[in-house]
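Justification of computing resources. Each target in the renewal requires a structure prediction run like the one illustrated here; the chain below, 420 residues long, is used simply to show the kind of job we budget for.
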Amino acid sequence: MDETRRLVADPWTGTNAANWKAALEGTLLTPEIFWRDHYEYLKGHGYTLRRRYEPDWSPSWIAKGISQFQSEDGNLLLHGMINDATKRDGSYVVLKIIDGTLQSARDELTMVRFLSSPDLSINPRNRCVPILEVIPPMEGSNVSFLVMPLLFDIDRAPFETIGEAVEYFRQLFEVSLYVLLTALMLNHVNLKGLQFMHNRNIAHGSALIHQCPTIAHSLSFVSDCKITNIMADYAPLYSHPPHPVDTLMRRDYRGPVPTPGSRTLTPIKYYFIDFDLSEVFGPDDVRLRIPPWGGDRTVPEHKLPHNPPCDPFPVDVYCLGSVIRRNFLDGWTVFNIKPKEGFEFIRELISDMVKDNPQERPTMDEVVARYDDIINGLGEWELRSPVVNVGKSLGIFGFIGHWLKHFVYHLRGIPAIPRA
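Resulting C-alpha cells:
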C-alpha cells in the first residue's frame, strides 16, 4: 500500500473489519502504522507520540492479563490524520498530517501560515488555532505535519452559566470581524496586498477561517461551520488533563479525569480548526460558489434543484446560526442534544441568521452589532443563571449550591461574563 492510500484508509468501514478485529487483538490499525513508522522522525523534531506508536511496542494489557480498555496503550486512533504528542518541555500538542499531493492540503498549509504570522497571531481576537510549527516531510515523502495546541471538544466541559455561553457566542461572532479588520489594515495603503495573497493561493478561494461567518465585501470564509470544528483550550480547567482519546480518563490513566474548574473563574479561549474549505474573495471577484460544501446539510441554498452557484457569505451566517440553534435553542435529536433554558434573548437574532432567503439574513457585522446590544440589556443575575435543559432543574441542593457560589463570585467582583 502506498503512503497516500495508507493515510486515507478508513479502519471503521466494513472493508477493514479484519483490520479492526486484529486491532482488538493487539495490532495497530492501518492508519496507525503510518504514525509508528514516523515515531523516531517526529521524536527527532522534539515530539514524542504515545507509547502505542513506539517501534517496539507490544500490548501492555496482554502481559498484565487485563482488558485492553483498562490500558492507556489500548486506545485506538480515532482519526488517522491527527495524533497527539508530548513536546520536550512536557506540554501536549496535536500533529496533523498535510499530504502535499493534495491541493486542498497545500492551500490549508498556506493559510495556516498566514493566520499564524506575527501580525495576526498577536491579536487576542484571533481565534484560529495557532500553528506552533510545521514539520517538513521525511526524505522521499510528501507528508508534512502541522503542530497545534491540544484542544478538546466544546462539550468536554459543560457550560455552567448563561454568561459563560454568552462569552462563547461572542468569540464565535467577533473572530471574523477581527480577520476582516486585520486584512484591511494590512492592505489599507496598497491593495496589491490582496494580489500578493492571490499569488500565494490565499485570495482566490483562500482559507482565512474554516467554519466562521463572513462580514464584508472583500473577504469570505467559505466554511464547514459545525460544532466539531470549534474546539476549546480546556487545559486550565483541569488539575490533571484528560486523555486525548478517552477523555473520561486522566492522560496518565491513573484514574478518571477530575471535575473541570469553573469557566467563570478561568475564562476559556475557543478556536476554529480546519482551514481547507475556506475562501477569500477580492473586491472584484464574483462571490459565487457551487454547492454543496461543508457538514451542514440543512443550508437552503444547498438544497435547490440543479445546485445553482450561491453567495457563500450568507451561507456562513446561516451555518453559524445553525450551530447555536441546534446546541442551545432547539436541540438536535440526531445527537441527543436538548434545548437549554434561558437563551430566548438570542432567539430573534438566530432566527434571522437561519432564514431560508439568504438576502434576508443579516451580515456578520450586523450580527455583531445586534449581539452587543442584546448582551448590554442582560442583567447580572440573568447571566449568572445556570445552564440546564428545558424542563429540568438542578434540584434543591444543586440550586442552593449554584447560587451561593455565584453570590460569592459577585462579592469578589468576578464578572458574570468571563472574557478571554
